[in-house]
Design brief:
4 helices; two-stranded antiparallel ribbon; globular; alpha+beta; 27% helix; two-stranded antiparallel sheet
């Protein structure tokens, strides 16, 4: 039907909506137009990430999905590497949140 949903869903919610495709994530990046990474990290199930707290602060490749103020879908893919030393590139989660805010 062309609709998309972003948020946390119970198994019951998923069954009621009948999704064709479902993508998971770790943490809210933006809430109500504001960078939400710090608060979102406190609320998230971070046990799914093997790098622990550094997951949010490491420069790395990132993928984010959201929608802008007009309700249009935004998909962001940032190239990066978690290499050590001066070879690190990409964005940390706060940077991605700021990028999403800038574009929507």
């Amino acid at each position: 039907d062309g609709k998309f949903y972003i948020g946390y869903f119970s198994p019951e919610d998923i069954g009621m909506v009948g999704f064709d495709h479902l993508v998971s994530g770790v943490v809210w990046l933006v809430r109500n137009g504001k960078n939400y990474v710090e608060q979102g990290w406190k609320e998230a199930n971070i046990t799914v990430q093997t790098s622990g707290d550094k997951y949010a602060t490491n420069l790395a490749s990132r993928t984010a999905v959201g929608f802008d103020a007009a309700g249009r879908l935004i998909i962001v893919q940032v190239d990066g590497s978690i290499a050590v030393g001066d070879n690190k590139r990409g964005m940390d989660m706060r940077m991605v949140a700021d990028l999403l805010i800038q574009h929507g």
